[in-house]
Amino acid sequence: MEFRGHPHGVVTEHALLLQGIDKRFGDVQALSGASLAVRRGTLHAVLGENGAGKTTLMRIAFGLLRADAGTVFIDGTRVALASSRDAMARGLGMVHQHFTLVPAMSVVENVALGGRGMLHLSQVTARVQELAERTGLAVDPLARVDTLGVGAQQRVEIVKALYGEARVLIMDEPTAVLTPREAEDLFAWLRRYVADGGTVVLVTHKLQEALAIADDITVLRRGACVCAAPASSLDLSALVQAMTGDAPHAEQALRTPRDAGQPPACVAQLSEVGVRDARGVWRLRDVTLACAAGEIVGIAGVEGSGVHELLRVLAGRLVPSTGRVSLPDVVGFVPEDRLHDALIGEFTLTENVALRGAGARRGRVPWPALAQQTAGVLARHDVRAPSAAVAAGTLSGGNQQKFVVGRELDDRPPLIVAENPVRGLDIRATEHVVRELVAAAAAGSAVALYSADVDELLPVVDRMVVAFGGRVRAVPVDRAAVARALVGAE
Asked: What residues does 106 pair with on adjacent strands?
């Protein structure tokens, strides 16, 4: 990766420096004297629980928000960023946790957005292809974004940021929707990017990830910096304590084997199901799968394997082209992309609760009862929101995810389909969601659980199935067996 120097002519140890940053949203103090010092040519991880202020701090660094107090320096120069364009002009790029792509446009058109002068799509296409090859983040420049899965859209966001020749790359939870192999490839490229003179700020909730790849780590808690140190001087226990303020506790087994007595009742059944997309391509072929009451079925599959179509058929969101489907009347569904498939950001939390089951509701909407139900969801699932009357879009990404999970699991539906349900969650929230899924199964729900990270599945599932090439087969609950099945090996 070639860099063109620093246009403002100032040499400093820090590529990005934020000092004493305050930010308030209404009654919520999101940041209180927060600081971040990112050394040039390093990978700097920013950690913190959901709502700790990580994304708010990054949005201030990128010019998307203005701080109430504090200073921002880029390459040693104090700046007052009026917009993200100002930040990009100074060599910053940002990959957002919530995608900023235009679904109806192609990949190359999305990358070209915001540029100036004559648009030459052939040149942009060639550049996108070159970046994709260099990073290993395969993208089809001519594909419409709304035809891509979440993992592919994440890759487009990264390529879009790199297209602007960013020297400082801010990445907000970039691996949340990537498979372990995709994450490994991304990290290998990031290390090369840093070795060539780039700087990376990595916002992540994965502590082991930060310890493995970062040079330096900053931890935020309740809007303030509580730890800033070289990664080599920290360990997992120190990070957990810094993030939560609590001493780390020993892990406990989450799942106990099912009683081998009376066979459980079948809750959902797919028989010889096939799904053909709008272009005539078969995404699923001859899939037969049953989910029984009280069990957790782990589902794995890489992008394009048919796994997302499988989950939507199970959730009743996609009608198959062939085969037979038997589902319960009520299905809890936690989709991968919460803002696209689960929430309306402009609606209040109560209105978003009302969306569930809206198609079957008749007569007047019972708003007082729904408000009370929403308040219960917030309390039971530790969703940090001022009230049920705030817009869903004002919550942090992690709290949005906890809200969706809480809404879908709150009435213990017979079938729960969960697609990357701990995406973007911190260690404590992840543990809470996993325990909720285990409790739902213990109470008799059938749970179909997909995760891009196989290691999230193995401790809690009763059995595993893997999608590959549009077909689905059962495999042992064993990491090596799952890994072979993910690439089509017997």
From this structure: 144
CA distance 196 to 173: 23
Q: Say what the alpha-carbon torsion angle 104, 109, 110, 111 is, to the nearest 10 degrees.
A: 160
Q: Tell me which residue of 394, 304, 415 sits closest to 51, measured CA to CA.
A: 394
Residue for token pair 């004493």: 20
User: CB under 8 Å to 367, separation ≥6 — which residues?
Assistant: 350, 354
pLDDT tens digits in sequence order for the chain, 490 residues long? 333 333 334 446 899 999 999 999 877 789 999 999 999 999 999 998 777 889 899 999 999 999 999 999 999 999 999 998 899 889 999 988 777 888 889 999 998 886 676 777 888 899 888 888 877 777 888 899 988 876 788 788 888 888 877 899 999 888 766 667 777 878 888 898 899 899 999 998 778 889 999 999 999 988 999 999 999 999 988 988 888 776 554 444 455 555 555 567 899 999 999 999 887 889 999 999 999 999 999 999 877 789 999 999 999 999 999 999 999 999 999 998 888 889 999 999 999 999 887 777 778 888 999 999 999 999 998 898 889 999 998 888 788 989 999 999 988 999 999 999 987 777 788 888 899 999 999 999 999 999 988 888 999 999 999 999 899 999 999 988 888 888 676 5
**Sheet containing strand 14-25, strands side by side:** 28-39, 14-25, 69-74, 77-79
Secondary structure letter of residue 206 according to DSSP: -
Report yes or no: 22 and 32 within 8 Å, Cβ to Cβ: yes
In angstroms, the CA 126 to CA 286 distance is 39
Distance CA 217, CA 282 (A): 45
Of 403, 407, 486, 414, which is closest to residue 450 (Cα–Cα)? Answer: 486
249-253 contact pairs (CB < 8 A, 24+): 253/459
Dihedral angle, C-alpha 279, 131, 99, 223, nearest 10 °: 160
**6 vs 143: CA distance, rounded Å:** 35
CA distances to 258, 414, 485 from 475, rounded to whole Å, are 18, 24, 8
Continuous segment of H or E residues that includes residue 169: strand 168-172
**How far apart (Å, rounded) are the C-alpha atoms in residues 18 and 81?**
12
H or E stretch at 368 = helix 367-380
Catalogue all structural domains in the chain, each as residue range(s) with its CATH number.
14-91+165-244 (3.40.50.300), 266-355+367-486 (3.40.50.300)
Q: Say which residues have a Cβ less than 8 Å from residue 242's Cβ, sequence separation at least 6.
A: 47, 219, 221, 226, 227
Burial (CB count <10 Å: 0-12, 13-18, 19+), residue 265: exposed
